[in-house]
Each structure stands twice: as structure tokens, then as C-alpha cells.
Amino acid sequence: MRSRSTNVLQGIILLTGLVYMITGILFALSPQLFGTLFGVQVTVDWYESIKFDTFIAPLYHFSRAFAVMVAVTGFAMILPLFDPLRYRGLVYCTGVIFPLVSSLLLLVNGLKYQHTILVAMGSVFGILCILTLAGLMMTHGKAKMGEE
Total structural domains in the chain? Predict the structure, then answer.
């Protein structure tokens, strides 16, 4: 039987995985819709001109590829739900390190250049990082003893 703290950690992991999956899939499928959700106006002319710009086109396609990687990371967050002890390292990497670095980068640039979408996503990743870290700290003692 799993402890209450392990159940809390698993809930946080599930939330983190869902955010990664939704964000990644939404941006990979339609960056325009993703931008529209955050109030960024994307015109058809701008979108059509991307494919002809030698600098913007690779960035656009790389960002969509990285969005797919974020979605896949979200699917990988399902593994710790089955065996939290075995996949604890995965939780540290994808639940603490990744959102910490991402949130800092997004928040700094969002505040510097006044982009609401960057600040919003940076805040979401920062909250996920704090929640996951809190969940890991709650289960630290039992994990050391090899219990769930």
C-alpha cells in the first residue's frame, strides 16, 4: 500500500505530465492556436512568410520539433506513476531540472521584452518545479528506506 505522501507526489507527476503533453501537442500541431490562446495575434501573411525566411523557418520548425519532445516527456511522466522508487531520477530530471531551467529562461526573457506568453509559461513551469520538488521532499525519507 502506498503512503499518502507518495500519492501526493504521483498526483503532482500526473499534473506535470498533462501540462507537458497538452502544451507540446498544442504547439506542435498549431503554433497559431497556441499563440491565440495567449492573446498573440498571428496574421496569415506572417505565417506564410515564415517558410521563405532563411533564419525564421529553421527556428519555427525546430521549435515545433522541441514541442514534440516536450509532449513525449509528458508521456514519459507516466512511468513514475507505476513505480515511483525506480523512476525517481526521471522525476528529478523532468519534474525539477527541466521546468526550473525553462521557467528561468522564459521568465527572464518574458519580463525583459514584455511578452505575456513567456511570462505565463515560465510561471506555469516554475509552479510545476516547486510542486514536484515539494512532493519529492515529502517522500524523501521513505524513498531512502526503499518504501513507497
Answer: 1
